[in-house]
Amino acid sequence: MEHNIVIIGAGFAARQLIKNIRRADKQVPVTLIAADSADDYNKPDLSHVFTQKQGADDLTRQSAAQFAAENNLTLVSHTRVTAIDRRNKRVVCGDRFFDYEKLVLATGAQAILPALPGSEWIFTFNSQNEYRQNQDALQSAKQIVVLGGGLIGSELAMDLHRAGKQVTQVDRSHSLLGSVMPAEISSRLQHKFSQMGIQLALNNELESVAKTADGLNVLLKNGLIIRADAVIAAIGLKPETALAADAGLYTQRGIVVNGQLQTSDPAIYALGDCAEIEERILPFLQPAQIGAMTLAKNLLGGAETLNLPAMLVKVKTPDLPLFFAGETTRTDLNWDITLNSQGMMAKGRDGQNQLRAFIASEEHTRQAFLLLRELSA
Known about the structure:
Helices cover 23% and strands 31% of the residues. It is α/β, with parallel strands linked by helices. The strands form eight sheets. It has a five-stranded parallel sheet with strand order 5-2-1-9-21, covered by helices on one side. Strands 11-18-12-13-14 form a five-stranded parallel sheet, with helices on one face. A five-stranded antiparallel sheet has the order 24-25-28-27-26, with helices on both faces. The longest helix has 15 residues, at 285-299.
């Protein structure tokens, strides 16, 4: 068979997987198929492009050709996969096809765009390509509405504000970061945003966007109309499952995998933002890194089970650094909150006084790695 391992998708997870494969085996045939250029960029840097005054191309760290040469792989870029022929173990790309012994789906996730009147005027901001398509409009915009009060929306709102833009942040929740921590704890970031001059429209939502002669009219549920130059949707990610579902693989929110990262077809695996393991989607760098290490071993004949430790998440809001880890959304935890001139430390313990989660801001973030050890114990 011409190609042994075929990987669809060229994001962070796919690259980590290739590096891990090559550490163990320099020669096994690997083919990488990508719908875009497959050039390497650091996705977290998207959170700082406005204050850093960076264009999309400034984010590129390595060309796809250089990566392919360094890692001895066959690169097939700007090519869309149209089907997976599981019976013949073949990936179909229009009139081309690639045989595989083992196939990896690293198809990522797409930013969710709300279904409402005027949604065609809303930008998404989930990749270098999306930024490239809209960068001129976003860089020149003075008034921007950010839809979403979660991690990405909050990071984006702060970066836009620090770059001198007027920002209104809209979210259905009563608090920022409502999906990852209690309102009492995220209120420190919320207060900081208000102090900075970011307009918060919480417990609210977008109704419509209308194009006008001088920009956009953004209508909120409470009747408020905001005049804006741009609207960015940052309300979450939807795993890219269409290719897997069309091939008859088991999908729910994501492409369902077992502990070895195998799909319902034992010759096909999924990794990164598209994968669902134990009913969880984990769109963070650390699960992708650890998953890539595990999967590389399995693709080369192993039977490793993914074991994820407690993970530290850094909220990229530089004017109020914030780290969190553990089961921060559990409703049965007793929270001990310390608030002083150095910031905030919140520790969530269960009924047996076992540390189950923590959230730290500003100077207290220095304690995060010690607390992570206690969390993992």
